Recover the amino acids of this structure.
């Protein structure tokens, strides 16, 4: 024990958040009395410790009472540890001599028994006091920030982020898994609520990103491995072979014209149209270079053809290309990998994939797109018949405990857009089946009003079934939508020619693996978790890794753009600082105690421990060490110590939590 | 009321900074209630858990220990929770050899999103340890009580249960 420790204990009321359950005054009094012999000089309670007055109180005590250690019992350290450490630093104390003890998230908010909660708060503070006796002053490690940024995902959020950073003058690597950037937005015809053409507003941005001198666009590529830490990441990128030499290709499109192999385009055309075996997904694709789809290429499968090679005017086709792997060094990473559409086949009673004229929302997007397979004509699956009545079903796979509990947030507006487009293109009667109408953003409710005026029928109720089994006159040859109209209070059967399922959004099928790759976490639904749901929506718990767009949760285009720009702003802030202070949570090896057994060497996930053959001892590289502490726990000689979480600190905290420190003076007296 | 219902166990919980501590935070933010018997210690990773921490907690008066970490494969430090799992298995065998119910020490995975699951696990473990009763780890103090201070026939008292003696 440090004999000179002069400890201040500060107990926060947090309004009534803590004080409503924990008797904070009693706790502070108790700490002053019972922990006095452990070095507690002063214990105070205060309404809001985090307020500037609360912080000033601590600063004043440090100066006037000569405190050398501070324990603040308040909310989770994940919220305010930094606040109080900064306050301590302002008063001249090393920030790591200040500890936060959580008595809100872990006591007052989770317990109802006031006496038990108060006792637990005392134990927590006692643990904090014992622990802080063993805290030592630390200095954060400062590391330089690499000025390049890796952006994963070339949808609108990723493009926005890339342009913001590149325009500010810094290098960006934009990695896209598909042959072209653009993402889902490139598949849409119109965007709600303004009905401006999606391609018209997106493609200029795609071109800017593709031609920007600061952006390296790596399409048809994926990130396979990430090493390092904030400011100094190394990402391994897998460039899939295009079988087209990008330095020679002019994007003339002759290869696509001449390729004899037609393939159903499941990705871009949602299975409604064809592409060739060598293709660009759409005419405005960026980059302009086509991709050869090896499993569908006649040459690769049968050994003859090479039509593309024969006709290519610049000899750009190269059948010998191989997978390439290369590393890029970046300081920060933005993940904007987007979403997958809910597969409506999972709800068999809606008939998607079974009843021909049931369409998914993406299929309808392509059907209504003037560049789509029907040139923008809305027709039934037979390709010729114009529907006279159309039913649009909301919340397919969303707000449904059988599939996803959450609201996908875009489907109401998307459905209204579909209704408008059906009206405009076919003059058909449109029925919308909704649970609740959610139109919360600028101009959205006005759009809903417009649709009401256009004569769309709105039926409030969850659709039970879509069937082709006619029962009543007028139902023959139609799809019948069975629904409970909750506004009228009765069951209805509505015969229509076409059904559009407004499917919800889901995390990418490989979102979990990607999260692991970058060391971040997913929510229970699979969306990536932001650092704070309100105040830090684009940062993650992993320093240097940011998220933008639908990867964080369902959102519309404006919100995705906002997040792309926000993530870029955060990264630019980092780059401009030039260097970053890393938490000094590190392992160090005492060479005198190291027996050279090398057990720790293999345990380190970052290969941060090197073994010196000459001295027969191991050593930790502090820049690579991330501070997990596994080696500390494993060293049989106890030669490794971990700062911030040393054996002494944890052992002392255990004693404190079990209130052993209270028994000792009594034993000493008797 | 039986003794086990009256008994309030003290449990020390070790949480990892990235997943389970945040799960505990989330349980708080969502106001999910759980018994106040668990007192948490934050570690950076479940891999930091030195088995002596567990023995220290038990020998200092805890009736049980709850170890929590990220789900396998989700470790913030790539795979250190697997190392925690290995140590945990070994530790449970050691506890058995020491005559301590290995169920007093439990390893639980909780992601940052699993506040509800975290609370449910605390409840489950608290009730299981409550049912087991106090650990009564022999310390110098309670050994004296046990031996009535004389210490002469201590081994006999320790080894032979009361009902057999009478």
């Amino acid at each position: 024990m440090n004999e000179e420790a002069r400890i201040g204990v500060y107990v926060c009321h947090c309004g009534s958040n803590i004080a409503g359950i924990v008797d904070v005054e009693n706790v502070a009094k108790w700490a002053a009395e019972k922990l006095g012999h452990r070095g507690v000089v002063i214990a105070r309670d205060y309404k809001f410790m985090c307020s500037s007055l609360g912080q000033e109180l601590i600063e004043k005590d440090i100066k006037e009472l000569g405190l050398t250690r501070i324990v603040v019992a308040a909310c989770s350290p994940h919220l305010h540890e930094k606040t109080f450490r900064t306050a301590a630093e302002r008063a001249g104390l090393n920030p790591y001599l200040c500890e936060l003890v959580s008595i809100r998230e872990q006591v007052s908010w989770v317990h109802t028994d006031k006496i038990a909660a108060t006792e637990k708060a005392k134990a927590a503070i006692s643990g904090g006091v014992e622990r802080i006796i063993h805290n030592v002053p630390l200095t954060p490690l400062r590391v330089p920030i690499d000025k390049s940024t890796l952006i994963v995902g070339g949808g609108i959020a990723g493009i926005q982020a890339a342009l913001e950073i590149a325009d500010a003058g810094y290098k960006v690597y934009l990695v896209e898994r598909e042959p072209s950037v653009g993402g889902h937005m490139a598949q849409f015809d119109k965007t709600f609520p303004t009905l401006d053409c999606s391609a018209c507003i997106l493609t200029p941005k795609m071109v800017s990103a593709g031609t920007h001198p600061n952006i390296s666009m790596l399409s048809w590529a994926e990130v396979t491995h990430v090493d390092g830490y904030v400011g100094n990441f190394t990402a391994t990128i897998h460039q899939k072979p295009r079988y087209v030499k990008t330095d020679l290709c002019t994007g003339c499109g002759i290869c696509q014209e001449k390729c004899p192999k037609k393939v159903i385009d499941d990705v871009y055309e949602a299975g409604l149209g064809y592409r060739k075996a060598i293709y660009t997904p759409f005419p405005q694709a960026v980059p302009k270079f086509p991709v050869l789809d090896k499993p569908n290429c006649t040459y690769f499968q049968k050994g003859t053809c090479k039509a593309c090679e024969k006709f290519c005017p610049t000899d750009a086709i190269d059948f010998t290309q191989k997978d390439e792997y290369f590393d890029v060094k970046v300081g920060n990473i933005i993940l904007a990998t987007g979403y997958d559409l809910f597969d409506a086949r999972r709800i068999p009673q809606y008939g998607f994939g079974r009843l021909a004229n049931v369409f998914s929302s993406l299929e309808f997007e392509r059907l209504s797109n003037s560049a789509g397979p029907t040139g923008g004509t809305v027709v039934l699956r037979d390709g010729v018949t114009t529907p006279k009545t159309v039913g649009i079903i909301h919340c397919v796979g969303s707000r449904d405990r059988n599939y996803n509990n959450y609201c996908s947030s875009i489907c109401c507006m998307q459905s209204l857009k579909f209704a408008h487009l059906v009206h405009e293109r076919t003059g058909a009667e449109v029925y919308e089946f909704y649970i609740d109408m959610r139109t919360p953003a600028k101009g959205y409710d006005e759009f809903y009003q417009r649709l009401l005026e256009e004569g769309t029928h709105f039926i409030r109720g969850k659709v039970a079934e879509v069937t082709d089994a006619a029962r009543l006159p007028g139902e023959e040859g139609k799809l019948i939508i069975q629904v409970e109209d909750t506004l009228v209070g009765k069951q209805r059967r509505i015969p229509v020619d076409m059904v559009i399922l407004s499917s919800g959004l889901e995390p990418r099928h490989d979102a979990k693996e990607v999260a692991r790759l970058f060391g971040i976490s997913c929510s229970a639904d699979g969306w990536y978790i932001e650092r704070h749901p309100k105040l830090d929506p684009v940062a993650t718990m992993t320093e240097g890794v940011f998220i933008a767009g639908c990867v964080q949760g369902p959102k519309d285009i404006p919100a995705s753009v906002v997040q792309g720009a926000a993530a870029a702003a955060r990264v630019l802030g980092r780059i401009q600082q030039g260097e970053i202070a890393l938490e000094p949570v590190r392992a160090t090896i005492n060479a005198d105690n190291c027996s050279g057994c090398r057990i720790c060497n293999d345990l380190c996930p970052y290969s941060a421990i090197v073994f010196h053959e000459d001295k027969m001892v191991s050593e930790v590289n502090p820049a690579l060490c991330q501070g997990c502490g596994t080696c500390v726990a494993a060293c049989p000689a106890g030669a490794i110590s971990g700062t911030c979480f040393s054996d002494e600190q944890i052992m002392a905290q255990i004693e404190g939590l079990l209130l052993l420190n209270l028994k000792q003076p009594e034993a000493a007296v008797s | 009321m039986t003794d086990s219902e009256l008994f309030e166990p003290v449990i020390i919980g070790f949480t990892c900074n990235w997943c389970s501590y945040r799960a505990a935070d989330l349980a708080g933010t969502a106001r999910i209630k759980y018994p106040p018997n668990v007192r948490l210690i934050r570690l950076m990773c479940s891999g930091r858990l030195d088995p002596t921490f567990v023995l220290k907690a038990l020998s200092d008066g805890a009736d049980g220990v709850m170890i929590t970490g990220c789900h396998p494969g989700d470790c913030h430090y790539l795979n250190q929770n697997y190392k925690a799992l290995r140590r945990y298995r070994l530790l449970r065998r050691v506890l058995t050899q020491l005559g301590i119910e290995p169920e007093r020490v439990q390893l639980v995975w909780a992601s940052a999103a699993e506040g509800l699951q975290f609370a449910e696990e605390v409840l489950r473990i608290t009730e299981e340890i409550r049912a087991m009763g106090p650990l009564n780890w022999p310390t110098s103090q309670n050994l004296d009580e046990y031996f009535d201070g004389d210490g002469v026939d201590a081994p006999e008292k320790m080894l032979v249960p009361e009902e057999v003696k009478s």
The domain at 7-140 of chain A is CATH 3.40.50 (Rossmann fold).
